[in-house]
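Recap from last week: sequence in, structure out.
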Amino acid sequence: MSTATSFRLQLKEYRSAVIIYYIIIVLIFTVFSGVSLLSIGDKQMNIYGLEASSVWFIFVCGMNTFRANFLFHLQFSSTRKTLFKGWLSSAAAVCLGMTCLNLLLLLLMNFLFHTPVGSTIFAIEIENVPLRLLSGTVYYFCEYLLFISLGYLITIGFYRLNKTGKWIVSILMGGCGMYLLLSLVRYESYVDAIVFFPLAHPWIVSGIYLVFTAVILSFCWLLIRKMPAKV
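Predicted structure tokens:
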């Protein structure tokens, strides 16, 4: 199997999920737009969360695209290198496509339908509007690529663990997640600094994301190289 064939097969895995996701997003935006238009008085309802929901969606996508594709490639005597290259190219294509769709949706909602949709892209501290949109697009592409790679690494790691190991790691991850959430209030000033730093330095943060993505992808490849076949 060639890399191009692997790319098309793995890209197809995302199609239904992405379509359903954007149908839900459009429905939510439509409902909130209607409520905003019907609201009484001068208060306008702002809509937020498109980028955050996209990050979680892309993260979950990364966690659900390994096992079936891995076994399928092994069945057709395809190399692990072909599998990894096909996944990486398809993941990058999905991240780029979602970044562009989100930007288009934001522009349509704000300037065509006059629905106030909040976004980090509009808050980036760059006066030149085209450069601001380009910076935001690059920033979110790098962020999506980071999170889909992180999800892919997690599912590869779980695939290699036995049942007991999966339970232990799941409990530890859940505990660490709860601790971090409970600690947000204590470190609120640091969290604010981290959240607002990309607004002033989107290109620097994009570069940092790419470095972390490269590290994560390196671990993914090291795990895939010696990955045992398990049904």
